[in-house]
Design goal:
The chain contains six helices and seven strands. It has 192 residues and is of the alpha/beta class. The longest helix is centred in the first third of the chain and has 13 residues.
C-alpha cells in the first residue's frame, strides 16, 4: 500500500524512480547527496518506499522521544547519541553506533548525509565510510537528480580500507548529480 501511495506522490510531483537498487544488497550504508534542501528528505523517503529499500535514517536521540517518535520512528528514524563523549565515558562513537545497527538487523540500509549540512562544505564527514568498513557492508550511493527529477541508487562501493581511492570514486559519481540548490553543494576537496 505504502509503495503505491509513494509512487503516486512521486509521479504527481513529476519525479521518477530509477529502480536500480541491487536486490542482492540486503545491508548497506546509503549515502544521500547532494543534500541542499529540506525537500531532499521527502523525495528520498518516497523513492525508497517505491524501491522497497528498508531505509533507516540517523537522527539525534533526543528527537526519538514521545510524541515525535510516533512520526519519526515509522518513517525510519533510528537514534544516535550525539552528546559529547567526555560527558559519557564509555559511550560508543558515531561509527560504532551505526555499525551496531548492522548487528541487530538482517536487512537494513542506514541513510547518512555525508555533507552533514544543507550548505556547501569543503570536507565531508567520513563516519559513513568507517561504519561501512567496520560492519563489512557496502556503501550505496543514493541520489536525487533535480535536473532530471530522478531518484535512485548509483554505484555500490565495497570499502577497501583505502579511503582516498574509495572516496575518489564517490566524488566522481556525485560530481554529475545536480542538487536542488547547486551552489550549496560541494565535493570533498580532499578527494575531488
Amino acid at each position: 500500500m505504502m509503495k503505491r501511495v509513494a509512487a503516486w506522490l512521486m509521479s504527481l510531483s513529476g519525479w521518477s524512480v530509477n529502480m536500480n537498487y541491487p536486490p542482492e544488497v540486503r545491508r548497506c550504508v546509503m549515502t544521500a547527496a547532494p543534500h541542499t534542501s529540506n525537500w531532499d528528505f521527502w523525495y528520498a523517503r518516497l523513492a525508497f518506499f517505491v524501491m522497497g529499500v528498508p531505509v533507516r535514517f540517523t537522527i539525534k536521540k533526543l528527537w526519538m522521544h514521545f510524541p515525535l517518535s510516533l512520526v519519526i520512528g515509522p518513517l525510519g528514524g533510528i537514534p544516535i547519541d550525539r552528546r559529547p563523549r567526555e560527558d559519557q565515558p564509555g559511550r560508543p562513537s558515531y561509527v560504532d553506533q551505526i555499525a551496531g545497527y548492522f548487528r541487530q538487523y538482517q536487512q537494513i540500509a542506514v541513510l547518512v548525509t555525508p555533507e552533514g549540512t544543507r550548505t556547501a562544505r569543503k570536507q565531508w564527514k567520513t563516519g559513513f565510510y568507517y561504519a561501512a568498513l567496520q560492519a563489512g557492508v557496502p556503501v550505496c550511493l543514493g541520489y536525487l537528480d533535480y535536473r532530471k527529477k530522478e531518484a535512485g541508487v548509483g554505484l555500490v562501493i565495497y570499502p577497501t580500507g583505502d579511503i582516498a581511492a574509495d572516496m575518489r570514486q564517490i566524488m566522481d559519481f556525485y560530481r554529475k548529480i545536480p542538487g536542488k540548490f547547486p551552489k550549496k553543494f560541494s565535493l570533498d576537496e580532499r578527494y575531488a
